[in-house]
Amino acid sequence: MALILALESSCDDSAAALVTSDRQILAQAVVGQNEAHRPFGGVVPEIAARAHVEVLPGLVRQVLHEADIAIGDLDAIAATAGPGLIGGVMVGLLAGKGLALAAGKPLIAVNHLEGHALSPRLVDASLDFPYLLLLASGGHCQLLEVRGVGNYRRLGTTIDDAAGEAFDKAAKLLGLGYPGGPAIEALASEGDSKTVPLPRPLSGSAEPHFSFAGLKGAVQRAVASGEYRAADVAASFQAAVVDCFVDRTRIALGASDAPALVLAGGVAANVAVRTALAALAREQGRAFAVPPAWLCTDNAAMIGWAGAERLAAGMVDGLDAPARARWPLDERAEAVRGAGVKA
Ligand code: KG4
Ligand code: ZN
After folding, report:
1. Cα 211 from chain centroid?
2. Which atom number of ligand 1 is nearest to the Cα of residue 297?
3. CA distances from 185 to 179, 276, 299 (A)
């Protein structure tokens, strides 16, 4: 059994965890930064990086203390090395390098997206490769065939906004707080999803890509019209995203014979999304897996688990491992026409 200390700092959550290769989480801690960013209405990279500097060392001490583990007991240190806000990534990765050096143990530079992608296997030992993954977070919206550790084929991606970003923007238009996903979900439960006519961008198109920018524009017009209750807008918006997920994922399942459909990333915490994708998997005769909500949003346990999977495969990194703002899981996938800088 291997014991991994993991660090996560790619966006606005600082996190540390102790994870074992036999799927135990000995301790974990996550500290968000919502208060620090709230006055600015979104994540400010410089503030995020400084907050990671202040918070991470205490979190490392805390998880080691809670599990009664000394640094010499570790088998490896896993740290998120990207993609994400580069200042924060550098803080966590450098901390990981320092700890690896002090412990004399290998560093594992983890791709944050691989953390999300492998997270369902941390809680479900029966989930084997390959599986079709819908990865929907604040920075990404992709359909990937997960063939093994470090082995991904991208079938679809967003040509503009990420799904979580769309939730956050819709929430802002409705005057709800950041992050918007949980706020929209709560408000949607009081609304009628059939009230506001909203588009389902790219639905019916042959390739399983996503687009959410037009949906945001439509929400903006619906709010500005003053004709609708906020709860009805929230419910209608959430239903539109769910419909896009189902339509696009159905196309991707047609291009993959993976026996299971898996959902991960922050947006996978949404119950309407989870329910609709589970129904799609049933319709398509595939197994379905989604991690518990706490494992969907950013955390270090998933980074530790990805580290355990990589360590078992002999994939360790040198202390010269780079911090990467951009780091696609499928390096062969080409940019999609109409896509911006987001991978
Ligand atoms: O994976 P994550 O924690 O961070 C990134 O790697 O981006 O995802 C954060 C995103 C945010 O955009 C947030 O609004 C969204 O996930 N989110 C949700 C829910 N919880 C978090 N979206 C919809 N419904 C939720 N319950
Ligand atoms: Zn994430």
Report:
1. 18
2. 3
3. 11, 14, 21
Predicted pLDDT at 342: 42
All structural domains of the chain, each given as residue ranges with its CATH number in brackets, are 3-117+297-312 (3.30.420.40), 125-294 (3.30.420.40)
Parts of the chain with a pLDDT under 70: 337-343
Q: What distance in Å separates the CA atoms of residue 308 and residue 267, rounded to the nearest whole number? A: 25
pLDDT per position as a tens digit, 57-103: 999 999 999 999 999 999 999 999 999 999 999 999 999 999 999 99
What digits encode the pLDDT tens for the residues 152-196?
999 999 999 999 999 999 999 999 988 899 999 999 999 999 999
- Identify the burial level of 226 via C-beta atoms within 10 angstroms of its C-beta, where 0-12 means exposed, 13-18 middle and 19 or more buried: exposed
Using DSSP bridges, classify how beta strands 107-111 and 3-8 pair: parallel, antiparallel or unpaired: unpaired
Ligand 1 touching residue 181 (CB < 6 A): yes
> Are the C-beta atoms of residues 264 and 133 closer than 8 Å to each other?
yes
Q: Which ligand is nearest to the CA of 181?
A: 1
SS3 307: helix
Q: Which atom of ligand 1 lies closest to the CA of 269?
A: 26
